[in-house]
Write a structure and sequence with these properties.
Elements: E1 2-3, H1 9-35, H2 38-45, H3 50-59, H4 64-79, H5 81-87, H6 92-97, H7 100-126, E2 127-128
Parallel strand pairs: 1-2
Protein backbone atom coordinates (compact mmCIF):
# COMPACT_ATOMS: atom_id res chain seq x y z
CA UNK A 1 0.00 0.00 0.00
CA UNK A 2 1.14 3.48 -0.83
CA UNK A 3 0.53 6.08 1.87
CA UNK A 4 -0.21 9.44 0.30
CA UNK A 5 -0.62 11.33 3.60
CA UNK A 6 3.00 12.55 3.52
CA UNK A 7 2.73 13.96 -0.01
CA UNK A 8 2.04 17.65 -0.59
CA UNK A 9 -1.62 18.47 -1.14
CA UNK A 10 -1.01 19.67 -4.69
CA UNK A 11 0.62 16.34 -5.66
CA UNK A 12 -2.26 14.38 -4.14
CA UNK A 13 -4.77 16.54 -5.99
CA UNK A 14 -2.95 16.01 -9.31
CA UNK A 15 -2.71 12.26 -8.70
CA UNK A 16 -6.40 11.98 -7.85
CA UNK A 17 -7.60 14.19 -10.71
CA UNK A 18 -5.38 12.69 -13.45
CA UNK A 19 -7.49 9.57 -14.18
CA UNK A 20 -10.71 11.59 -14.25
CA UNK A 21 -9.14 14.14 -16.59
CA UNK A 22 -8.02 11.35 -18.94
CA UNK A 23 -11.44 9.65 -18.86
CA UNK A 24 -13.27 12.91 -19.53
CA UNK A 25 -10.88 13.81 -22.37
CA UNK A 26 -11.30 10.39 -24.02
CA UNK A 27 -15.06 10.55 -23.63
CA UNK A 28 -15.26 14.05 -25.11
CA UNK A 29 -13.17 13.06 -28.13
CA UNK A 30 -15.35 9.98 -28.66
CA UNK A 31 -18.48 12.14 -28.33
CA UNK A 32 -17.09 14.64 -30.81
CA UNK A 33 -16.35 11.95 -33.39
CA UNK A 34 -19.74 10.29 -32.94
CA UNK A 35 -21.67 13.56 -33.17
CA UNK A 36 -19.91 15.17 -36.10
CA UNK A 37 -19.35 14.46 -39.77
CA UNK A 38 -16.34 12.35 -38.71
CA UNK A 39 -18.81 9.54 -38.02
CA UNK A 40 -19.92 9.56 -41.66
CA UNK A 41 -16.27 9.62 -42.79
CA UNK A 42 -15.58 6.59 -40.58
CA UNK A 43 -18.60 4.73 -42.00
CA UNK A 44 -17.50 5.44 -45.57
CA UNK A 45 -13.94 4.36 -44.78
CA UNK A 46 -15.11 1.02 -43.32
CA UNK A 47 -17.58 0.37 -46.17
CA UNK A 48 -16.06 -3.04 -47.04
CA UNK A 49 -15.88 -4.27 -43.44
CA UNK A 50 -18.70 -6.46 -42.20
CA UNK A 51 -17.95 -5.43 -38.61
CA UNK A 52 -19.32 -1.93 -39.16
CA UNK A 53 -22.49 -3.27 -40.79
CA UNK A 54 -22.98 -5.67 -37.86
CA UNK A 55 -22.49 -2.91 -35.29
CA UNK A 56 -24.92 -0.59 -37.08
CA UNK A 57 -27.46 -3.41 -37.34
CA UNK A 58 -27.17 -4.12 -33.59
CA UNK A 59 -26.97 -0.56 -32.24
CA UNK A 60 -28.43 1.67 -34.95
CA UNK A 61 -27.18 5.19 -35.54
CA UNK A 62 -30.02 7.34 -34.21
CA UNK A 63 -28.77 8.05 -30.68
CA UNK A 64 -25.50 9.58 -29.59
CA UNK A 65 -24.86 6.62 -27.28
CA UNK A 66 -25.16 4.08 -30.08
CA UNK A 67 -22.86 6.09 -32.33
CA UNK A 68 -20.28 6.31 -29.53
CA UNK A 69 -20.42 2.53 -29.06
CA UNK A 70 -19.88 2.03 -32.79
CA UNK A 71 -16.90 4.43 -32.80
CA UNK A 72 -15.38 2.57 -29.85
CA UNK A 73 -15.92 -0.81 -31.47
CA UNK A 74 -14.36 0.24 -34.75
CA UNK A 75 -11.41 1.79 -32.93
CA UNK A 76 -10.45 -1.74 -31.90
CA UNK A 77 -9.96 -2.49 -35.58
CA UNK A 78 -7.56 0.43 -35.87
CA UNK A 79 -5.58 -0.40 -32.73
CA UNK A 80 -5.43 -4.16 -33.28
CA UNK A 81 -6.22 -4.83 -36.96
CA UNK A 82 -4.88 -8.40 -37.03
CA UNK A 83 -7.73 -9.44 -34.70
CA UNK A 84 -10.29 -8.08 -37.15
CA UNK A 85 -8.57 -9.69 -40.12
CA UNK A 86 -8.50 -13.12 -38.48
CA UNK A 87 -12.12 -12.96 -37.38
CA UNK A 88 -13.25 -11.64 -40.76
CA UNK A 89 -15.03 -8.48 -39.65
CA UNK A 90 -12.37 -6.07 -40.91
CA UNK A 91 -11.15 -5.51 -44.44
CA UNK A 92 -7.42 -5.01 -44.97
CA UNK A 93 -8.10 -2.42 -47.65
CA UNK A 94 -10.30 -0.39 -45.28
CA UNK A 95 -7.52 -0.03 -42.73
CA UNK A 96 -5.01 0.96 -45.41
CA UNK A 97 -7.34 3.61 -46.85
CA UNK A 98 -8.54 4.95 -43.48
CA UNK A 99 -7.97 8.71 -43.01
CA UNK A 100 -4.92 9.34 -40.84
CA UNK A 101 -6.35 12.26 -38.88
CA UNK A 102 -9.44 10.28 -37.89
CA UNK A 103 -7.40 7.22 -36.98
CA UNK A 104 -5.25 9.41 -34.76
CA UNK A 105 -8.31 10.94 -33.04
CA UNK A 106 -9.93 7.57 -32.44
CA UNK A 107 -6.75 6.05 -31.04
CA UNK A 108 -6.11 9.03 -28.75
CA UNK A 109 -9.66 8.72 -27.42
CA UNK A 110 -9.26 5.03 -26.64
CA UNK A 111 -5.79 5.44 -25.12
CA UNK A 112 -7.07 8.24 -22.87
CA UNK A 113 -10.00 6.12 -21.71
CA UNK A 114 -7.94 2.99 -21.14
CA UNK A 115 -5.11 4.74 -19.31
CA UNK A 116 -7.56 6.74 -17.20
CA UNK A 117 -9.40 3.63 -16.07
CA UNK A 118 -6.11 1.78 -15.48
CA UNK A 119 -4.73 4.60 -13.30
CA UNK A 120 -8.01 4.82 -11.40
CA UNK A 121 -7.95 1.08 -10.80
CA UNK A 122 -4.37 1.22 -9.54
CA UNK A 123 -5.15 4.15 -7.25
CA UNK A 124 -8.13 2.35 -5.77
CA UNK A 125 -6.21 -0.88 -5.26
CA UNK A 126 -2.85 0.37 -4.02
CA UNK A 127 -3.40 3.54 -2.02
CA UNK A 128 -3.90 3.59 1.68
CA UNK A 129 -6.82 5.71 2.77
CA UNK A 130 -6.22 7.42 6.10
CA UNK A 131 -7.90 10.21 8.01
CA UNK A 132 -5.78 13.28 8.53
Amino acid sequence: MVDLSGWPASMRLILISLPFLLIITGGLINTYIAGSSHFDVMCRAFRRSSGLRDEIMIWGTLSQKSRMVIVSAMTLGLIWPSLGYRQGWLSIQDTKDFPGYLSWLMKISSYCLLSGFAILFLLICFTKLTRS
